[in-house]
Amino acid sequence: MGTKIIIALLRLLTFLPLRRVHGLGRLLGRLFILLPNRERRNADINLQLCFPNLNEAERLVLRNRSLEETGKVFAEMSPLWFWPKERVLGLVKEVSGMEYVKCEPGRGLIVLTPHLGCWEISGLYLATYGQVTTLYRPPRNQALELLITQARSRTGAELVPTTPNGIKRLYQTLKAGNIVGILPDQQPKSLKGAAFAPFFGVPALTILLVSRLARKSGANVVLGFAERLPEGRGYHIHIVPVPEGIGSPDPETAVAALNQGVEACVRISPEQYLWSYKRFDMQPEGKPSPYNQPRS
Fold first, then answer.
1. What span is annotated as the signal peptide, if there is one (predicted)?
2. DSSP β-ladder status, 202-207 and 194-199
3. For the chain, how many structural domains are there in total?
4. Per-residue pLDDT band at 193 (split at 50, 70, 90)
5. Angle in degrees, CA 193, 252, 287, rounded to 5
6. Mapping DSSP to helix (H, G, I), strand (E, B) and coil, where does residue 159 land?
């Protein structure tokens, strides 16, 4: 019942222009700021870890702007999931770095889209440039999963789950010279297939899948994200090359390069990163999770 109500509310938002939708998202973000909640607490902890050189007032400004942008993430799902694809793609007002989007026969392209800006429209737009296979972590709610897969595949993308068969499909896509899309900054559920590397100077458990795909397929690798423009004017898509070493056989070197690339993207628009996510929950042995500290 709860999922049906949420979907109904999202459909109601489709009658509003993006400027109004983002305005409602900003109001939701203000609630995150004013009321004690998990998102605000996580953002405080993450920003203290990642920006130790900022004073308390500067971190508070960044946290509040970030939570307002987080509210927009939830609100903008409505137009991005339900508007006609032509209208959604028309929200892309500027694209930088498309010269790095190169698919070559037999090697393909890996596009890494971190939780920065509007990752939903990044995937929809990318699929207009070639056949895309996107890896995703299925939600437990089947109705929500159906909605997500239908919305994200509207421009031709193929969604595959994080299973052995899904990984196999990624290799097939790259071998065919097509595009693979991956969220590179989700914390893995276990140490298997992952390694720790600094992210803003903090150890972050990071997937090795990107390194293995790049090394075995020879695919080009880039980072891409959609920056949210002010006043609901639309989005600016940035394509950024990854640092050298992404395909290194040494796990620490590979994930260090990956996190350096994500960090470079975040520094372009730090307030639009999902700082409320528990990115550093799993830590090296003997080091506690920063989120387990006593509540203040």
1. none
2. antiparallel
3. 2
4. very high
5. 80
6. strand
Q: What's the token pair of residue 57? A: 């007032």
DSSP assignment string, 187-225? PPSSSTTEEEEEETTEEEEEESHHHHHHHHH--EEEEEE
Residue 116 DSSP label: B
Give me the domain span that covers residue 167.
91-274
SS (H, E, C) 245-276: CCCCCCHHHHHHHHHHHHHHHHHHCHHHECCC
Q: Is residue 77 domain-shared with residue 186, that is, in the same domain? A: no
Q: What tens digit of pLDDT does each residue of 212-221 get?
A: 999 999 999 9
∠ CA 273-277-280 to the nearest 5 degrees? Answer: 110
Tokens of 59: 């971190």
pTM summary value: 0.92
Encode pLDDT of 93-118 as tens digits.
999 998 888 777 778 999 999 999 99
Q: Do residue 149 and residue 231 come from a single domain?
A: yes
137 or 176, greater pLDDT: 176
